[in-house]
Design a protein that fits this description.
With 100 residues, the chain is of the alpha+beta class. The chain has one domain (4-74). It contains three helices and two strands. The chain has helices spanning 23-43, 49-73, 77-99, and strands spanning 4-10, 13-19. A two-stranded antiparallel sheet has the order 1-2. α1 crosses α2. The longest helix has 25 residues, at 49-73. This is Cell division protein ZapA. Pfam families: ZapA (PF05164). Keywords: Cell cycle, Cell division.
């Protein structure tokens, strides 16, 4: 996997990170985070960068949690196909044991 680096300038701080991800992916994550930060700054009276960062973390966690819940309630066709394959394999094994 390629290593990517990202320069972060946000909420009054600046630093650089490196990760085992492509730079395009890191930039997309950063852009999404900045979008959330901007929404919070526009809709909230808080001027505290730490509070803003915490609220952003909670909002992004909420997005992730809702997406996971949606996927668990609506499994993808690939998941269903894999479940069917496993079930058929188990049925075959049971049939073999019963016929022995």
């Amino acid at each position: 996997m390629s290593k990517g680096s990202l320069q972060i300038d946000l909420l009054g701080t600046s630093f650089s990170i490196q990760a085992d991800e492509k730079p395009e992916y890191l930039n997309a994550l950063y852009a999404h985070y900045k979008k959330i930060i901007n929404q919070i700054e526009e809709s909230s009276a808080t001027q505290n960068p730490l509070k803003t960062a915490i609220i952003a973390g909670i909002l992004i966690s909420d997005e992730l949690y809702k997406e996971r819940m949606k996927r668990s309630l609506n499994p993808s066709p690939v998941d269903l196909a894999e479940a069917e394959k496993i079930a058929l394999s188990l049925i075959s094994r049971i049939d073999q044991v019963i016929s022995e």
